[in-house]
Amino acid sequence: MIGRPHGSVPPRGLQAEHIRDSKEIEMLTVLGVNASPFVRKVRAFLAEKQVPYALDPVIPFGVSAEFKKLNPLGKIPVLRDGDATVCDSSVICAYLERLHPEPALYPSEPYAYARALWFEELADTALSAAIGPKIFLQRVLNPRFFGKPTDEAVVRAALDEELPPLFDYLEGQLGDGEGIAGGRFSIADIAIATQIVNLHHARESIDAQRWPKLARHVAAVHERPSFRALIEEERAQLGG
């Protein structure tokens, strides 16, 4: 069943080309589940754009054959836009940027744009690989939903060995601006911050003494309305 709509305000800069066949605009639907960093990435992106959408909860374990017709990889999120289906959070966000270019969430300057894509990729791969299966799965999903004990050795290894070099790198890349790529808030900041939400759900955080710029930066992103509402919603559901 499709969940309640999110973001009741109309899309910014609504143009005639966004109206299909002179009919009412169909609300976008995000297929996925709360607490997925990639679903959260898309939801935060939509919130920053002030684009309304509906959330259709899909748990990414043992997905149906019907869902695999939408994404043969069986992964979330998937975006439905009328008859169009778009898979993968990075592809979805790039698609949404074309549909709703304001406010811009990708830098226009070529090097800043490249850096934004790089930090998004780093977050989606390296940060996700360290936090998702080795910390969030172990501390949150296994004991609460799968009836399995937490393997603290796995958690400790990720915290002590895998995350520090990544945090060192990000600390060194941050400047004085609002965003890590070109100094302006962008998809790069969304991608990094969404992974850290899952770290917080697992009762861990960025050491502000060791990585002060990164800790401040992520905290600022999490305080944006686009993130704050999602984090509060997930904490209520997870009992955190």
Question: Which descriptors apply to this entry?
Answer:
Glutaredoxin, alpha+beta, Glutathione S-transferase Yfyf (Class Pi), Chain A, domain 2, 5 strands, globular
Q: Largest sheet, described in full?
A: 5 strands, mixed
Task: Label the structural class.
Answer: alpha+beta
Order of helices and strands: EEHEHEEHHHHHH
CATH architecture of the largest domain: Up-down Bundle
- Strand element count: 5
Count of structural domains: 2
Q: β content, as a range?
A: 5-15%
Average pLDDT taken over every residue? 91
Overall shape: it is: globular
Protein model, in words:
With 240 residues, the protein is of the alpha+beta class. It has two domains: 5-99, Glutaredoxin (3-Layer(aba) Sandwich), CATH 3.40.30; 110-238, Up-down Bundle (Glutathione S-transferase Yfyf (Class Pi), Chain A, domain 2). It is built from eight helices and five strands. The chain has helices at 37-49, 65-70, 89-99, 110-146, 152-173, 187-201, 212-222, 225-238, and strands at 5-6, 28-32, 53-57, 78-81, 84-87. The chain has a five-stranded mixed β-sheet, covered by helices on one side. Helix 4 runs antiparallel to helix 5 (152-173).
Summarize the structure.
The chain is of the alpha+beta class and 240 residues long. It is 54% helix and 8% strand.
Write the layout of secondary structure elements.
Elements: E1 5-6, E2 28-32, H1 37-49, E3 53-57, H2 65-70, E4 78-81, E5 84-87, H3 89-99, H4 110-146, H5 152-173, H6 187-201, H7 212-222, H8 225-238
Parallel strand pairs: 2-3
Antiparallel strand pairs: 1-3, 2-4, 4-5
Helix pairs in contact: 1-3, 1-6, 1-8, 4-5, 4-6, 6-7
